[in-house]
Amino acid sequence: MEKLDFKREKYLYSPPQTPTRVQVPKMLFLMVDGTGAPEGACYQQALQALYSLAWTIKMSKMGPSCPQNYTEYVMPPLEGLWELGENGRWGERESWKWTSLLRQPEFVTPQVLAWAKQELKRKKPEIVTQNVSLGFYEEGLCVQMLHIGPYSEEEKSLELLRAYIAQNGLQDRALHGRFHHEIYLSDPRRTKPQALKTILRHPVQVP
User: Is 24 helix (H, G, I), strand (E, B) or coil?
Assistant: First the structure.
């Protein structure tokens, strides 16, 4: 049987390198909130907890606690919601607020997450998981594009997004208490900066 792979949803995970509209449906995620720079301890610990729980759930098929309706699937890409500062710009890195997410199949329930937390606590008690939650996130109408290159050069692509939003008479909801959304298609540990692929997504609305 073919594994479930969310990245096959091309309209969500394979945008062009130019801005385009997309209607993003409600999706289920493991998620964790935090504050600080991506290289900081808080962010790194959050990712450790997020991935450890995700892998515990994925590998539950190997033991007696395999969840009901378990589906074979490919580990999804990491996603991040980053709070924009005044006028949609970035503030000091140490004060960045973010939510890190990993999409989950429908069989993952609060009970499955609770089991995974207990299992991980038994095997690796040093990993703190209490801040990881399970929930739905629905963005609705968005504008997105693929950015290829270092994270530090994303502003060039964001300028294209903003120009597209303005030229098409849309309002950028990321500028009004919402989050700039990134989806990381590349592993920065194994990919050269100039080859990193990141989806940049902004929620918008029609005035």
Answer: strand
